[in-house]
Design brief:
The radius of gyration is 26 Å and the shape is globular. The chain has 15 helices and 20 strands. The chain is 32% helix and 24% strand. The structure holds xanthosine-5'-monophosphate.
């Protein structure tokens, strides 16, 4: 896709490798993460990076078959930055020595102090004579490789910052990409400046390139796009429409599990504002019919996934002769994770997507967002003129309200849930909290409880409120509302929503909980 200079991040399996890419993208530098197994000398030649970063990782360079980059990395003549395990790899490959941890293992906050010789990589550092960094290592470097010198030390890491400035090889023991290394971003900024990046990876440029690429890929063929109303598929649809106009048709499958007014909002925006051909497949009877009596979360998810594919396929035929399926796949879905065990990971939830469709229907994929992170997709959406109210929307899962209605799903429960959710979100917006929260929603609990309203007894459903902060949905913390907010919200829900007489606030983080109920 890109004609920009590229930075290659070789992933050795650190939990925070994606954060390196985030920091670089914030500097308008185009980078890609690739697992070490895939990076061969031929790959390097083909990728032609302007700089390379070796990530951290859980392995030890002493382990049998320890993850290593190809030798060619150090002969490319481009700057290389090694982080934590990446530093140890550099020393190991270039003639230094690494020793096992024991007493010198370090986890958490540490302070690095400078050496007398200045290093351009550290420009803007050490304003107060020392700098806070985040360490997380067992093994440590005990002798640096020829050509390297020390530029920073910490009490437990005499080689916290080392470099061979002539060859532009830099190696640090700490993690500059995490929050707890406050000046980490500055270090990356200096690194990419030294490597000669122009910082020209902007959404404006991306949009033009993406449009050109879509035209090239699609030619005069027809494209269909499954629209969920979420940010990703919407941005993909608008971008593709800019590229190929009415060769694109969107299919919006309404499974009857949407929020209050959601279908109308999506239809209005796409038809009235953008004039994009759109099939509104109202299939709520089909979905709710098949879900009747189903209370097992996995059966719900699989039923919805299966029906979605059937319905999509049925309506896609109306388009007639589409050769491509557009999807809003994002970069985090594409990054191949490094697996040392090689074993399959446990399925927590079967996620709903249109997987399997392209093969079944003989379609090729158009995925114009596969190089972007979520916030970049939002920036692109702004660039394309999508309304802010739409771009900033909280994520909404494919199976919709089904997974916010534990136990059996009924139309009555869904209606109560929609009303309660609308009041809750209204409260959050009124208090100016919407953008601080990553995702917020109501779940209706499969239990009725007794209450008293006026002089009468009530026997109604209980609901629970969820609000979390998160970066990517992988981990999450509950949002610390004030008691006043919670009290006011509970009162409003009980007063305004028929069918609920008790409100709980869910204070489980993820892990051990998940964000959705099912
Ligand atoms: P969990 O509940 O697994 O959710 O902690 C993490 C994030 O993923 C969303 N989610 C889904 N998104 N299809 C989606 O497109 C799904 O099947 C699905 N299930 C969960 C959830 O809303 C949260 O943002």
């Amino acid at each position: 896709m890109t004609q920009h200079d590229r930075l290659l991040i070789i992933d050795f399996g650190s939990q925070v490798t994606q954060l390196i890419a985030r920091r670089l993208r914030e500097l308008n530098v185009y980078c890609e993460i690739h697992p070490f197994q895939k990076v061969t000398d031929a790959f390097l030649q083909d990728f032609a990076p302007r700089a390379v970063i070796l990530s951290g990782g859980p392995a030890s360079v002493f382990a049998e078959g320890a993850p290593m980059p190809p030798e060619g990395v150090f002969n490319l003549g481009v700057p290389v930055l090694g982080i934590c395990y990446g530093q140890q790899v550099m020393m190991h490959c270039l003639g230094g020595r690494v020793e096992r941890g024991h007493k010198t293992a370090e986890f958490g906050r540490a302070y690095v102090t400078p050496e007398p010789e200045a290093l351009p990589l550290l420009e803007g550092w050490f304003a107060e004579g020392r700098e806070q960094v985040w360490m997380s290592h067992g093994d440590h470097v005990s002798a640096i490789a020829p050509g390297f010198r020390v530029f920073g030390t910490s009490p437990n890491a005499p080689f916290a910052i080392t470099a061979d400035p002539d060859r532009h090889f830099y190696a640090v023991q700490f993690h500059p990409e995490v929050h707890h290394t406050p000046k980490g971003a500055k270090l990356y900024e200096n690194f990419v400046r030294l490597a000669g990046f122009k910082g020209d990876w902007t959404m404006d440029a991306y949009r033009d390139e993406a449009i050109r690429k879509i035209r090239e890929q699609v030619g005069d063929a027809k494209v269909i796009c499954g629209l969920s109303g979420g940010v990703d598929s919407s941005v993909a649809a608008v971008l593709i429409h800019e590229a190929i106009g009415d060769q694109l048709t969107c299919v919006f499958v309404d499974h009857g599990l949407l929020r209050l007014g959601e279908a109308e909002q999506v239809l209005t925006m796409f038809r009235d504002t953008y004039n994009i051909p759109l099939i509104h497949a109202d299939e709520s009877d089909l979905f709710l019919g098949e879900l009747e009596g189903v209370s097992d979360p996995e059966v719900k998810r699989k039923t919805i996934g299966r029906l979605f594919i059937d319905v999509f396929q049925k309506h896609a035929h109306e388009v007639g002769g589409a050769k491509f399926l557009a999807q809003g796949t994002l970069y985090p879905d594409v990054i191949e994770s490094v697996s040392f065990s090689g074993g399959p990971s446990v399925t927590i939830k079967s996620h709903h997507n249109v997987g399997g469709l392209p093969e079944k229907m003989g379609l090729k994929l158009v995925e114009p967002l596969r190089e972007l992170f979520k916030d970049e997709v939002r920036a692109l959406g702004r660039e394309l003129g999508l309304p802010e109210s739409f771009i900033g929307r909280h994520p909404f899962p494919g199976p919709g309200l089904a997974i916010r209605c534990p136990g059996e799903i009924t139309r009555e429960k869904l209606e109560i849930l929609r009303q309660a959710d609308a009041v809750y979100i209204d409260q959050i917006r009124k208090h100016g909290l919407y953008d601080e929260i990553w995702q917020a929603f109501v779940a209706i609990l499969p239990v009725k409880t007794v209450g008293v309203m006026g002089d009468g007894r009530t026997y109604e459903f209980a609901c629970s409120l969820r609000a979390v902060t998160s970066v990517d949905g992988m981990t999450a913390d509950y949002y610390p509302f004030t008691h006043d907010f919670l009290g006011e919200t509970a009162t409003r829900i009980i007063n305004e929503v028929r069918g609920i007489n008790r409100v709980m606030y869910d204070i489980t983080s993820k892990p051990p909980g998940t964000i959705e109920m099912e």
